[in-house]
Design brief:
By secondary structure, the protein is α/β, with parallel strands linked by helices. It has a single domain, classed as Rossmann fold (3-Layer(aba) Sandwich). It has seven helices and six strands. The strands form two sheets. The protein has a four-stranded mixed beta sheet with strand order 5-4-3-6. α2 packs across α3.
Length: about 180
């Protein structure tokens, strides 16, 4: 066996999840879209929540996108929550996704396999703005590649969570966070 790591990059949803599942227990491999983006995002979130003194297990995450990056982030956040004692089922309830058809919920038909673990028993919201209003997430993470669905003015005008001004103030003015 060669002393090397295989990095999967830009394989598309259908292949990326399948290849990673197929090879991860047999060879040293890594998918940057699924695992690398997730690691950096979780690190940023944990740092932000430490700054505002709010534990990750009290946060709700909404991913704008439901591809490799979003599902990878959701999986890693779930793993972090499980690591601190949250049940798998409860940990998944902290993570929500919106794709081109709206909020990922159990009542939707023909969901791709990789989205099923984040399909919740909740009323469908047809778009990002209605999902934000229904869920009131603590963190909104944009990873959609569909330009016409990008954050629009209505999304930017939604009232931020109570913690956001505190986080921004800390990051801007307190020297230990610069």
């Amino acid at each position: 066996m060669p002393q090397a790591m295989v990095q999967f990059e830009d394989f598309g949803n259908a292949n990326a999840f399948r290849l990673l599942a197929q090879w991860r227990s047999r060879i040293c491999c890594f998918n940057d879209d699924i695992q690398g983006t997730a690691a950096m995002t979780l690190a940023g979130l944990l740092s932000a929540f430490r700054i505002i003194h709010k534990p990750i297990e009290q946060q709700r995450f909404l991913f704008f996108g439901a591809g490799e990056a979003a599902i990878g982030m959701g999986d890693l956040i779930v793993a972090a929550l499980v690591e601190i004692g949250v049940s798998l089922e409860e940990a998944r309830r902290h993570c929500w996704c919106v794709d081109t058809q709206g909020l990922i919920v159990k009542s939707r038909e023909n969901l791709a396999e990789h989205k099923l673990r984040f399909a919740h028993d909740f009323p469908h919201a047809p778009d990002l703005l209605s999902a934000i209003r229904a869920l009131q997430p603590d963190a909104l993470i944009g990873v959609s590649t569909v330009a016409e669905l990008a954050f629009r003015e209505g999304v930017a005008r939604v009232d931020p969570p109570e913690s956001l001004p505190e986080l921004v103030q800390s990051a801007m003015w307190e020297p230990q966070y610069r």
